[in-house]
Amino acid sequence: MSPEGTEEMTDSFLSIKNIRKTYGSVIAVEDVTLDIAKGEFLTFLGPSGSGKSTTLFAIAGFEAPTSGEVILDGQALLDIPSHKRNIGMVFQRYTLFPHLTVGENVAFPLRVRRKSASEIKSKVAEMLELVQLQDMADRLPSQMSGGQQQRVALARALAYDPPVLLMDEPLSALDKKLREEIQTQIRRIHKETGVTILYVTHDQEEALRLSDRIALFNQGRIEQVGTGHDLYFNPATRFVAGFIGNSNFLEVEAQGARDGRAKAVFPDGTQMDGVPLHTDGAGNEGSVLMVRPEAIRLETAASQGAGLPIRIFDTTFLGDAIQVDGRTSWGQTVTVRAPLSAGGAQGAGPGDTVNLQWNAEESHLFSNG
Amino acid sequence: MLLTFKTMGALRWVLVGLSVIVAIFLLVPVIFIVALSFGSSQWLAFPPPGWTLRWYQELLADPRWLASMLTSAKIAALTTICAVTLGLLTSFALVRGNFRGRETLRAAFLTPMILPVVVIGVALYAFFLRIGLNGTLTGFVIAHTILALPFAIIPISNALEAFDKSIEDAAIVCGASPWEARLRVTLPGIRHGLFAGAIFSFLLSWDEVVVAIFMASPTLQTLPVRIWGSLRQDLSPVIAAASALLVLLTICLMIVAALVQKGRQK
Q1: What is the number of structural domains in chain A?
Q2: Nearest chain A Cα to B192, which residue?
Q3: Hey, are the CB atoms on B172 and A83 less than 8 Å from each other?
Q4: Are A293 and A338 in contact (CB under 8 A)?
């Protein structure tokens, strides 16, 4: 794999190619390939240990991948030492230099680059204004809250106009309210600066709120890359369907696969035609049906025709909606989240039998392996 | 239930009494020697029949005492520099290094603290005799650096352990070379540890007498060695004056160390 042999034209700004990282026999990153466009906000989402941070650290230069390459704006990155990559990074932990004031912290990368005093002064002021902390230039990090410290860290990481900004779970130590407040700021700063951002998080809500696209990591691989909408409504794998949002997974048999669709036959004989079928690479046909709780309609058992009958064992009032938990005739539990305004079998309570209906388009068939 | 001072009732006065006794026990020798240094008696009689500064005048007029003080200060200063430099490098290896036998190595570096000082003195004397370092400033500094090293390594490696390596990584991502990052970010970050290591090293060398007796020559004597020698030859109150000065500098350094510690906690 020669770093120089990649002359092909591509509109991707940052290219991650076949990154693999192993520690002895432990595989941290199996094989990650990803193209990121200039100015994009892309999030690495996934459970802990899925390889998202390791991939980010490889781009930053703190981890040398076992194999693979990273191309930034046409230049191979992995041979360049970390401090010469000109990449910005905000860490999970508070990493402001404790002996320097806020202003000196933001000035640090500029001092290292031997910028003139006047240039440093105006840039520091500009950056502190960007993160709305212009009055705090003379404070020490120990005199600031966690949220403020991370905003200063963001200002420091952007002070030298890096082409790419890496963020490794920067808000995970903050409480929920503060986190949402800073997420809004990060969105604004992304819009104002146009910097390309790679953001790591295990919080799907954060990923959905911030990103243009999400790369969902699982066991050292990317399961799916797409917008939040794509991942939610068109999950490529069962893992994606289970990780993003809430899902019901029901045992079925897929029959007559054709044009990416199949007929789902439930153990009790209920059938549903034209359900989108996803094969997980292995080629075996789907045998589990996924449907979101809010995609399901409740109909009274008496009402004629189709529907999967369940027996309700619990209902919960949620304000704008009602959550109904029931059990199929073969014993699987199903959760339904029905808006209060919807008609149908709204009034049904524990012990009642109701029929579940949904558009085939809104459910998916996956292999059960 | 937790035993606190407030809930102890009458027992607390017993505790106060005990503490006072222990404090007196610890302080009396020091107070005694300081009092004697101002006493007018030739024979170190206590209580002193009168008060005088004569012994301090004699001390400061005697070139041999002055030379010893200078020697002590010089050796202590050089020992401090060597111990802190080596302690810093060692701490980086022990804290950041990832190699087999790291814990064993850490224990090995702390042995000078555990071994009987006499044993180290004899060993160094025998070795230095062979390579001609006995009675030299170099030999003295090497010997005291060996003794001081654990006292430098402990506070410095503790500080380094507490310093988040992500902060150094952040400096590197910001564009600082690894060495620049350590120099401009990590060192200031662990400065309280370096300072504590420096004070401990200085004090160790300043009042060390056992190894110093082995290392000393008639022309190269530290203050504790001269005090020891004078004690056996002429029991003069000048010794008390010299001891008082030794104690004074030690107390000053301890106060500075305490102030630094307090400033850090704020």
Answers
A1: 2
A2: A99
A3: yes
A4: no
